[in-house]
Amino acid sequence: MSISPQSFSRPAKNITNQLKIGARHVPPFTLKAAGLFCGVGLAMILYFRYEKARLERQRIVEMSKGYGKPKVGGPFKLQDLDGNEFTHEQLQGKYNIIYFGFTNCPDICPDELDKLSHMIDIVQEKSPNILRPIFITCDPARDTPPILRSYLSEFHPFLLGLTGTYNQIKNVCKQYRVYFSTPPDLKPGEEDYLVDHSIYFYVMDPEGDFVECIGRQDSAETAANILLSHVNDWKREKKPLDTRPVVGSNAVAGPAESAPALGKSSAATAAA
What we know:
This protein is an alpha/beta fold. It contains 6 helices and 7 strands.
């Protein structure tokens, strides 16, 4: 039985025809498809970067809490400028940013408080009433409540001034690992002395736990972004957050703001 060469060429021709038909049904790689592909890829990259940064922030927060006792922050009792007691328990509910300084500071404190005022405005615009800024004097002998109130009025109305006895200030500085050099045994009328102190903003979360420090190297914009990143993480976990208006030292005199409970009953104060 003889086999003609044509019988071998028919299957090859059929395969070629099928490939041509299939090729006509494959959609071309258009600019729209390329844009969609690149967009999905970019979105995935940004998402993974955000998650990496979020997990790193979470790791830092957990490390900052220490084992049983926070490394920064702790119990204290001070007074606001109306003479009302203010304790560590009243840090709960909102994010807090705490600065230690004194009114006779020639340049560093004013510069840092100007930066803080700008940062407060940025945060207030993007996430209203979640930040309580606190100024704790390192020089209670000279920084009387009237002097401290007048000084803070030059910066931002949300600023809450706190003072106390020398020992109370020493205790809160110890809790926050703040160095200060105010003389302990001042005679009445003695005012000619210098004060040195640590220059950091201490960020505390709505449970009163330390989050991180913001230093002089941070601008108001970068500091606000750092804080808002923590706020967004907090909101993402649907934790309660007090959004009542912030009351500073230059508001109408009244009792110190009390913190809401942080259990399920406080869901009404949580951010939407």
